[in-house]
């Protein structure tokens, strides 16, 4: 797989995973707020997907030659890390805030 393709994996997969996490968590908790534990599992699985994307693009931080590839290789780990943190913080919020309070 080329540097550019690996970098785009790290740029596209984490935001898509975060979007699906947010939509799935919202649908789950609106349908049955007592199933908060499933939200925790959903968050852990989503964070694992983002962490896998981060691990895939982490070696690209080194010098890759082409200027566009260099930029993508630096951007991909930042995006993957940011969305992994976003999912982890939202999962922590599910633990802290009661979901059945209206």
Summary tags:
102 residues; mainly alpha; 3 helices
Outline the structure in words.
It contains 3 helices and no strands. The chain has 102 residues and is an all-alpha fold. The longest helix is centred in the last third of the chain and has 30 residues, at 67-96. It is elongated, with a radius of gyration of 16 Å. The mean pLDDT is 88.
Give the SSE layout.
Blueprint: H1 3-31, H2 36-57, H3 67-96
Short structural summary:
With 102 residues, the chain is mainly α. It has helices at 3-31, 36-57, 67-96.
SSE succession: HHH
Radius of gyration: 16 Å
Low-pLDDT runs: none
Question: What is the share of helical residues?
Answer: over 70%
Q: Which class do the helix and strand fractions yield? A: mainly alpha
What is the average per-residue confidence, as pLDDT, rounded to a whole number? 88
Beta-strand level of the residues, as a percent range?
A: under 5%
Q: How many strands in all?
A: 0
The count of helical stretches stands at 3
| Largest sheet features | none
Q: Report how far apart the termini are.
A: 49 Å
In one word, what is the shape? elongated
